[in-house]
Amino acid sequence: MKRRDFITKAGLVGAGTVAASTLAAPAIAQDRIEIAMVSTWPRDFPGLGTGAQRFAQKLSDVTDGRIQVTYYAAGERVGAFDSFDEVASGNAQAYHAADYYWKGKHPGWAYFTAVPFGLTYPEMKAWLRWMGGQELHDELAGEFGLKCVPMGNTGVQWGGWFNKEINSGDDLKGLKMRIPGLGGDVMAKLGASPVSLPGGQIYENLVSGAIDATEWVGPWNDEAMKFYEAAKYYYYPGMHEPASQLHVGFNASFWSGMSASDKALIQAVAAGGDNDFMAEYNAKNGAALERLVNDQGVVVKEFNDDVYAAFKRGSDEVYEEVQTHSALAKKIHESMVNARKIVGDYVQLNDVAYTNKRNAALGA
């Protein structure tokens, strides 16, 4: 190659590099994404709050600060139950919540957190990822200007804290109980008075006697809330929330304005956060239960078959009403029931059978 040609070509390459670098800086600056994220949890609350805060920080970490999330705990920007409207209106870009809080807007929302006699964690994951659940959630959320991404699960929740023993369905009559979602509707069918309260208001209402009972999550979270100071009996298993799936709900216009790669990145970070949530609850619930029993004198009791039969009667009535709400509500219900049958039967034959055999062989 002639020296003159080499210098000319090298000059062109250099010029191209300069041009690219001149364009890159402003492009990166323009690509910065800022997200105001409200939530339904108290700040630094174990699991629910800290998991949402980890997600917000992780988005910043994996993008070297290009995506910045400003996290607002319940009450810091809006009230816990105002999160939906704050994001749907576009005043904030995202929320972290349990979507069953929005069942008053459409009963279908409850199915994407948890419903009575519904899906466990592995069943929920199968339904959302591979059996049409996410598509149905997208259809429902789209009607309200939202896009919801799974991020967090607490597993099977406990039945709750009671000031008296619950030995039959009749013992639920007249009970004022904090229990949201369709589980609250079931309790109403059985003569109880369900109350929906955000987490930060439960303890004071239980201590004051404004409510007689409450469910929240499970041993790890319930210990942190100190419910043992106000109620003696701790019942399991809860029929109302067999796998409480949490979500990051985005404003739909904001979501549609992001690039495909940013959407995929957010969904990947959320999936990792979802796994971390369930792992943390599994790791910490057992030790917390031991402390509640050994250190606080909590009486752990199992709901008997008579009480569960009452729960089933109440849930049958609730589901009949839900399916008459709309074609979409009916479609969501039928899809969940199909997943519960197909996945649930296999989990029973495989996972549950193995655990039972293992524990029997080990003398557990």
Show unreliable segments: 1-29
Percent of residues in beta strands: 5-15%
- Gap between N and C termini: 81 Å
Helix content: 40-55%
Structural class computed from helices and strand pairing:
alpha/beta
* Element-by-element helix/strand order: HEHEHEHHEEEHEHEHEEHHEHH
Main sheet overview: 6 strands, mixed
Rounded radius of gyration (Å): 24 Å
The global form is globular
Neighbour order of strands in the largest sheet: 7-6-8-5-9-11
User: On the 0-100 scale, what is the average pLDDT?
Assistant: 92
The tally of beta strands, per DSSP, is: 11
**Annotation field: number of helices:** 12
In short:
This protein is an alpha/beta fold and 364 residues long. The protein has helices at 3-30, 48-62, 83-88, 121-130, 133-142, 181-189, 202-208, 219-225, 252-256, 260-296, 305-325, 327-361, and strands at 33-39, 67-72, 94-97, 146-153, 160-162, 176-178, 193-195, 213-214, 233-236, 245-251, 299-302. It is built from twelve helices and eleven strands.
Which descriptors would you attach to this protein?
single chain, 364 residues, alpha/beta, six-stranded mixed beta sheet, five-stranded mixed beta sheet, 11 strands, disordered N terminus
